[in-house]
Amino acid sequence: MGIDLTGRTALVTGATGELGRVMVRTIAACGADVAIHYNSNEGQALELQKEIIATGRRAAIVQADITNLDAIVAMRDKVNAELGHVDIVVANAVIQYGWTSILEQAPEDYRGQFESCVMQSVYLAKAFAPAMIEKQAGRFIGINTECAMQNFETQSAYVAGKRGMDGVYRILAKEIGRHQITVNQVAPGWTISDRDRANGTERNEGYEKSVALKRRGTDQDIANTVAYLASDLAGFITGAYIPVCGGNVMPAI
Q: Which PANTHER family does the UniProt record give (predicted)?
C-alpha cells in the first residue's frame, strides 16, 4: 500500500519556504502535479519548478499575496489555465515576524497573523472549494503549529492567528464534508530543515527533553503527513488537528 496522487493537482502556498519545498517535492513524488506559490522568492520558485519538471511531473509557479482575495482568485485562474482545477490545497504560507511579549508586540503583527492564518484560509476556501464541490472530491490541508497548544510566552500573535485558523478549518470541515471534501490540519513541532542542516543546529537538548521521542522531527516528517492526508488513504479523516511533534504536545479527549 502506498500513497498515490496520480492525476491530481496540488497547490502549496509558501512553497519556497523551509517546509514548503519538501512538501512540494513529496507531493510530486507521489504523482501529483504541483502549483508552487511564492510571495517574493521567484528564483527559488523557478528552481523548484525545474526540479519537479525533471521528475516527469507538471509544475507551475504562481505569485500572490495570500492576504488578498483578488490575488488568490487570480492565482487560482492561472493554475487552472496551466494545470487544471486544484484537487489539493495546502495552506502553508505565513507572515514572519519577531516574537516578544504582548505588552511589547506591535499591533500590526497581530493583524499580519490574522490575515495570513485566518483570512488566507477563508480566501483559499472561497477560491478553490466551489470546483471541489462540483467534482465532489477535494482536500484542504492547513499547516498549524504545536504552539497553538503550548501557549508559551512571546507566542501570542502566532498562537492567536493559528487558533483562529483552527476554528475556520473545523467549521469548514463540517460545511463542505457532505461533498466528500476533507479539511485537516498538520501541526509541526520545532522541525529540522535545510537551514539547520547547513548551520549544524539539528540538536537542541533543552527542547528534546520535553519530546516523548527525545528528538526533533524533520521537514520530511511533516511532508509525509501532508501527503497522507492528501491521499485516498485518509479519505475518512476530516476536522483533525494532527501534531507531528514526537509527542511534545498531545491533544486530549
A: OXIDOREDUCTASE, SHORT-CHAIN DEHYDROGENASE/REDUCTASE FAMILY (AFU_ORTHOLOGUE AFUA_5G02870), SHORT-CHAIN DEHYDROGENASE_REDUCTASE FAMILY PROTEIN
Give the C-alpha distances (Å, rounded to integers) separating 106 from 97, 113, 151, 164. Answer: 10, 12, 18, 19
Give the three cell numbers for residue 109. 503583527
CATH label of the domain that carries residue 238: 3.40.50.720
Q: What are phi and psi of 217, to 5 degrees?
A: -80, 175
Cα separation values, 42 from 38, 196, 213, Å: 7, 23, 37
- Bridge partners (DSSP) of residue 11 are 35, 89
Q: Is the pLDDT of residue 236 over 90?
A: yes
Query: What cell was used for 31?
Result: 504523482
- The answer to whether 158 is a known catalytic residue is yes
Per annotation, catalytic residue among 158, 169, 228, 241: 158
Render pLDDT for 20-44 as a digit per residue (tens, 0 to 9): 999 999 999 999 999 999 999 999 9
Domain with 116 in it: 9-244
How many Cα atoms within 13 Å fall on the side-chain side of residue 62? 27
CB distance 24 to 36 below 8 Å: yes
Give a yes or no: residue 118 inside a domain: yes
Tens of pLDDT, residues 131-184? 999 999 999 999 999 999 999 999 999 999 999 999 999 999 999 999 999 999
Mean pLDDT of the chain: 98
Domain tally for the chain?
A: 1
In whole angstroms, what is the distance from residue 50 CA to residue 113 CA? Answer: 31
For residue 10, list its beta bridge partners: 34, 88
8 Å CB contact between 207 and 216: yes
